[in-house]
Amino acid sequence: MSLKSALPMLAVASLLAGCGSTATAVNQGGKSAGGQVTVTDGKGQRVTLNAPAKRIVTLEWAQTEDAITLGVQPVGVADVKGFGRWDSAAKISGQPIDVGLRATPSLEAIAKAKPDVIVGVEESVPANVLGRLKQIAPVVLLKGADASNPMGKMESNFRAVATLLGKQDKANTVLASMNSYLGTLRTKVQATPAGKRPYVLAYPNAQGNTVDFRMHATGSLPGAVAQRLGLVNAWKGKGDPVWGVGSSDLEGLSTLPANTTFLYWGSSESDPVKTVLPKSAAWTGLPFVKSGQVVRTADGVWLYGGPASVRQWADRLVADLATA
Fold first, then answer.
1. What is the distance between the alpha carbons of residues 123 and 142, in angstroms, rounded to a whole number?
2. What span, in angstroms and rounded, lies between the C-alpha atoms of 30 and 167?
3. Where is the Fe/B12 periplasmic-binding domain (predicted)?
4. Of 105, 175, 201, 269, which one is least surrounded by beta carbons within 10 A?
């Protein structure tokens, strides 16, 4: 699976262009008393439920993870198998209905799940299907990301799901714990040599014998987590306005500092760093390749998930930098 297909569908265009904004949970303070709850979706429209949802269908992996983190197992999940392969921070229990692939949900399967609310991102539902989907249950489609404030966007989406489920107090606890944990890890990693070296995070993409690299800027969620840990991103591109992801070729990598730690992630189905790039003199001649500063990372970590994945990525990042 490529990065383009791993990210929410239609995010292909977002890798190059687009804009992000922050969806908000209107009732995101204390625990819901069981009355109405209201959130604002990615287009600024308010969605109100008469009571917190007990049965939720999730159309995107981040929202699936968020619901489970909040203690609610979705009754319907988009791409159950894919979620289990890419996101190990939250475990699906029971037998939720698989409601189809992300961006191409099955209305029949969703209706069978009898949800109180359907949650995803704006790319989750084709425009010509949205009206029929709303006939099944209220639909909340959030902005998937925002490179101008990636951590804030992740948190606001998490709070939106919490509000819909009446789990605001749980959300406050989870986020406070995450932020405290990141502070602890920052102190730990900054006391090691690994914390002083620049890094990059890339998703190599092979087309035949040619490999290009999806580079994760500080505006990407994984890049923002690294910044919170005090790490310096050696790739200075801004990336696109939504996901904070840009592109580089081998020539572009030659401008990176010699002591860069090159972290990369990707599908378990292929690894061009091991199969294609060793045949390239331009790759093998890079200083960080010669010195063995190339590390595969984030297997089983969904880098665009919620607080649970953020903690998991921070752990993996610190551990992998220490071994580089």
1. 9
2. 8
3. 55-324
4. 269
